[in-house]
Amino acid sequence: MPDTSAASPTPPGLLDALAALLGPRGLLTAPEDLEPHLADWRALYRGATPCVIRPADTAELAAAVKLCASAGVPMVPQGGNTSMVGGATPDESGRQVVVSLARLNRIRAIDPVDMTMTAEAGVVLKAAQNAAADSGCLFPLSLGAEGTATIGGVLSTNAGGNTTVRYGNARELMLGLEVVLPDGQIWDGLRRLRKDNTGYALRHLFTGAEGTLGFITAAVLRMYPRPRDTALAFCAVADEDAALALFRRFRDRDESAVRAFEYMSGTGVDFCLTHIEGITLPVQARADHYVLVDLASPRPDAGLRDMAESLLGEAMEAGEVLDAVLAESEAQAQKLWKIREEHPEAQKREGASVKSDVSVPVSRVPEMIRRCSADLRKLIPGSRPVPFGHIGDGNIHMNLEQPPGMDPAAFLARSHDIMDCVNAVVREMDGSFSAEHGIGRLKTDMMPDWRGGAELDTMRRIKTALDPWGLMNPGKVFP
Ligand code: FAD
Ligand code: 2HG
Ligand code: ZN
User: Per the database record, which ranges form the FAD-binding PCMH-type domain (predicted)?
Assistant: First the structure.
């Protein structure tokens, strides 16, 4: 059994053995090289590590994992390090080794007949999308961090994003996996089968496990026909109910065409107008609520623009839509999407904010936004609720911005009160406290309350079976 006592430093000889195995490109130890790997995107955590391992391929990773495992050294998988919950950051002990998958960045195969792509874990999501497009197909997963987030990261968090409403979460876009287990064994499950009922679906265990069960090194991804007709509308809507009513109009007319349907508050759009260059308000007058309706179809004659005009006209007559703009070009469509995508960055620049990535049944979203906003304003007078996100999935980022002028640290000290305030409403509605970002380090203390009893117990048994020494991403997911 390896020595896993918290007090033990990096075992002598391990760094030399890793250096001999991985070469200078595969092992970073200089402080300036470690720096980008130590903190998370939100700057919630800052850890320490003796080194960053950057293997060139699966076999090298497996050999490095064997070395670390036999030395009892904990390992933290890291992809693009865009986690919203501190999932890829080492702790402060200085014992946890960061394992970056960045050099496993090959697209091994693309098959437009099977509609599959075999991509390594370090392939950046945007690169996977581009590779699919080059082969005349679509890899539909899309999120604000797609220029940095990796295939290994999106699968390990079962990321959602903007197109879940049409194509599902990352899990639904994955057919097979290759994994390096915590003891260094390689499991080759890179099957590209649509049907494969052969015992436990291990691939689904590693998806969403946030690096606590092993390293995803490659995946078979599912592609779709590329869109040949698109339409995009940015709408000012009367209220939260009108946003949902508009979603239903589009969904009920042609569910398969609704690629994304995103809600934004007036406050969030105001922040984007203030802080992000190149953003202008596309509609005539400011509103308290907006939605972005993104339509796409593989049929060139789908007539999506006509459909959008007709449904928006009906919605205006019904008083749901106050004003709307349809993109006239791809460039304008991108500009409209930018307003939505820059919400996290604009919130960051406005000051301190606390995020609550929650979901409720779609029908309850308007009530949830209203109740949470009212409760949050009461909890911290002057604070500014900034709800936005994936209304079609019932997943709203029920975020709260600090009151202007308040000390950011004093506001952040209330983080848990703020999240509890939102979660209390969400719980009453049979929702979830973690819709798409995962648990990471941030939400481990919520697990017993929300997923306690048989559920957490079963998760622990699975964890112990696969990682008996607790070396994989310790301090994440489990309290
Ligand atoms: P990392 O942050 O590096 O890691 C995430 C977790 O996965 C960690 O626990 C890590 O240990 C583990 N991990 C990473 N790679 C592997 C691997 N190969 N094997 C095993 N474990 C691994 N998320 C959404 O779901 N929807 C959104 O719309 C969305 N928008 C975002 C917008 C912005 C601006 C930002 C900064 C983040 C956003 N996120 C979103 C969160 C984040 O991008 C996702 O969680 C993404 O899936 C993380 O990918 P990554 O490669 O950066 O993973
Ligand atoms: C998004 O939908 C991401 O843009 C980030 O999930 C959400 O910043 C957030 O709270
Ligand atoms: Zn989101």
Answer: 45-226
For residues 223 and 115, the answer to whether their CB atoms sit within 8 Å is yes
Ligand 2 contact via 355 beta carbon (within 6 Å):
yes
Give residue 343 CA to ligand 3 midpoint distance, Å: 10
Dihedrals phi, psi of 175, to nearest 5 degrees: -110, -30
Q: In terms of Cα–Cα distance, which of 122, 212, 229 is closest to 438? A: 212
Structure tokens at 189: 């499950």
Cβ–ligand 2 distance for 340 under 6 Å, the answer no
- Residues 104 and 152: their CA atoms lie apart, in Å, by 10
d(C-alpha 236, C-alpha 243), whole Å: 9
Q: How many Cα atoms are found within 13 Å in the side-chain-facing hemisphere of 67?
A: 23
Structure tokens at 404: 């202007």
Of 34, 39, 48, which is closest to residue 83 (Cα–Cα)?
39
Q: In the CATH scheme, what is the code of domain 351-434?
A: 3.30.70.2740
Whether this model's pTM surpasses 0.85: yes
pLDDT digits (tens, 9 = 90+) for 63-105: 999 999 999 999 999 999 999 999 999 999 999 999 999 999 9
User: Position of tokens 């979660």?
Assistant: 423
